[in-house]
What we know:
Chain B is mostly helical. Chain B has helices at residues 7-15, 19-41, 45-65, 69-94, 109-132, 148-157, 161-182, 193-202, 239-244. Chains in contact: A-B, A-C, B-C.
Amino acid sequence: MSVTASSALLVQGAGPQYVNATGLFTLSWVLIALPLLSAAVLLLTGRRANAWGHLLGCASVLCSFVLGLAMLFAMLGRSGPDRLIDQHLFSWIPAGSFQVEAGLLLDPLSMTFVLLITGVGGMIHIYSIGYMAHDPERRRFFGELNLFVAAMLLLVLGDSFLTLYVGWEGVGLASYLLIGFWSYKPTAATAAKKAFLVNRVGDVGLSLAIMLMFATFGTTSFAGVFSGADRMMAATATGIGLLLLLGACGKSAQFPLQSWLLDAMEGPTPVSALIHAATMVTAGVYLIARSNPIFDVSPNARLGVTIVGAVTLLFGATIGCAYDDIKKVLASSTMSQVGYMILAVGIGPGVYALGIVQLVCHGFFKATMFLGAGSVMHATKDNVNMRHYGGLRRLMPITFLTFTAGYLAIIGFPFFSGFYSKDKIIEAAFDKGGTSGLVLGSAALLGAGVTAYYMTRLMAMTFFGRPRWEEGVTPNESPRSMTMPMIVLGIGAVFAGALLTFVGDGLAGFLTPSLGPAEKGSPPVISASGQTLLILAVATVGAVIAYLQFGRRSVPDTARQDVPVVVTAARQALYGDAVNEAVFMRPGQYTTRALVFFDNFGVDGAVRGLAALVGGSSGRLRRVQTGFVRSYALLMFGGAALVVIGLTLAYAI
Amino acid sequence: MSGLAHLGTASYALQQTTKGEAVIFWLLAPIAVLAAMAMVLSRRAVHSALLLAVVMLCLATFYAAQDAPFLAFVQVIVYTGAIMMLFLFVLMLVGVSSADSLVETLRGQRAAAILGGLGFAVLLIALIGSAVSSMTVRGLTAANAGGNVQGIARLLFTRYVFAFEATSALLITAALGAMVLTHKELLVPKATQRQLAARRFADGDPSPLPGPGVYADHDAVDTPALLPDGSVAPGSVAPVLESMSAARFPRPDVLPLAEGDPQP
Amino acid sequence: MSPAYYLYLSAILFTVGAAGFLLRRNAVVVFMCVELMLNAVNLTLVTFARINGTLDGQIIAFFVMVVAAAEVVVGLAIIVTIFRTRQSASVDDVNLLKY
């Protein structure tokens, strides 16, 4: 949709030129319609669809994936600028000069996301068949997953910020529904609410950004906004950029809106894998990458983005070191990895694509690990405490192998995908130059070491060492429907980085029409090979420390309490909730109490007092109505006397 | 007043009534006031009605004295004749026997009424006094030149004809209203003689009510009958008489027959 | 004697009627008091007719009489109706319409 207040405002300038959709690309709406239709069927038909609901759910997503793949090849057959394909669907709100159009934009960036969402999403759908097999509400689960996929596709395919916003809210809704899927658990219900509320803060930022865009450009369509971006005032650009960043922080669980993601792990594990690792949390990255013309105008906004990314990647990594809950460790890791992506898209032109490469690779390896975690939980009766795992590698070989693939990918082991994505971002941060480059690069480098530490800790506690299972737990490998997607995603985790870097122009080259060409900034501070070695060294140090702590020694059943302050803080998620509580909740609570008090005694007091006054006085005045005619007559007589007196006085004067 | 006076004395003659009229006024005005007050203060409604008639007759005389012979006759015929008859008729209907209790039930009503009345009277009199100090009396000699009845008729059928027609409609409506209000719908069949007799037996008192004077110490109709134990037989005196002659009823403490005496 | 004395007389009669209205409880007597007040007013009207030298005052007195007649008819009918249902002609007994 594009909102056009006046066609005169729609300036044609330096922005991207979109070509109209033809042929296969006119079917881009089908990508969204398939999962949406499936969701409607699953959610509306009720129990009748229990038997085949999960199959329909998987089929719709896989069909979308196949269609997306076909479009990818069709797109590859076009030359660069022709790959920006816009399809006008219908006039959403045709109201005089206020025109809102509905349309879809299929370009290399959204193409990447479409394939990631439908591909990884499809795998996770298949995995869910097995994972949720014993859940009586499995059909609803698939319906909501499909709803999520549809909303996410709308988010990445919309050709205006308004369409994006619809999808944005849609994924927020789906996320809420899926975190609270087991809503009979108070923790899940609370976590869902928390996620929704924290996301709302970010959504307000995004909606304000959209309003500001409309006020500035008179339109919210990508074409209109981006073509006018370079003539925008820097202050406006900074404002829009920071508001967009706020929106991205909410959806992508970036500092300071990170607190919901850890609690979101109350949802079923496939949800954690699909929404809170692979796709939805990357929506913020997409938003910033998509809005690159705006950030190009405002270095300040971009600096804000990099700071948020750097802080979050360290923040998440620190938390990840302290938790014993396997899903929460992975969730912190997600925060951290998304922090890398945000950092990348914040660094600027030429590095956007690196963020997207990291995003796709992360989608693979984090989904792999989440599914692996789900598989481990499946085998240990939904126990999430890593201190109750141990020695699972022999009993669950496929899980172990795929998880290892994800593990090697995330720590940036050479030639695994993380090596090509994350390490490139660290290099880009250093290459940014100047003090900021050094600080950001150091933060990213440190993050890599910490990542290696906590991931090694996780591996050691889960798959190695002696078994520390609880009584009655007899782990064994998960069913085929679960292991198969893990294998597929694991293969992706291993090879995605290399494939996306070396096939053809690589993903960066593919994305050039959307994000601009990859370019080198200032000459590297440290040579590329030197940087690679440095990163590997830091990561190795982290991994070795973790191995010495958790691999060599036995893991106690409960966490030690005599630990440094920083560990205690990390176990409390670096007091994120406490800060929110102290800064936002308590003052709000006290304000509310004061207002309630004022309402009760001030407003209500005045109203009730008035009512009591009227009621009381009329209750007394009522007694005048005795029913005795003679009393009334006496009053009339008195009144008549008064009238006579009045007339006398009036004539006398 | 005299229509024959000269112009010079006419104004004086008009300002002052004739001696005859003054005599009539000073004779009848106190009677009217006293009768009015007596009417208010009388315990018996019948007395009030009669006293009101006295006031109205006095007023009729005043009308006649003030060159309003038509109204004087209307006052006598309509008010004293018809309306007072209606009053007496209704009094008979609703119980001539009931004398008003003079005990005031509404607190402060009596004091307020008397004080208010006095104050109002003083106020009105003062007002009139100040108003009539510059009064010029024109007299009705000219207006009544063609006869008072003719003069009234002329005005009534010319200037006031619409009001006159409206009053006729009002009268018709009032007559109909009175009929409607006093009409009693017979909701159940009227009891026959046989049913009344059956009801009396069913009530357990089939004998006629005791007549007055039986076992009494006096044979006047307002003397109640006595029961064998010496107490007063209820219902032995007509209620009207009962209300009028409370003093004749024997009080319980002076019963003529003591306990245990041989019954008469 | 000045004709103004008629006015004083009527003022006194009117006040007596008004006081009677306030003092008496028998509905019929109350009605009589109303009639007394109307008559007092009639006397005023007739006196003013004389003072002003026109017959209009008498005409109005005539109308007052007619209206009084109508009022008495309806009022007494109401009294009779109330008496039938409540066995009382006291205005104090008709006091249900109150707080």
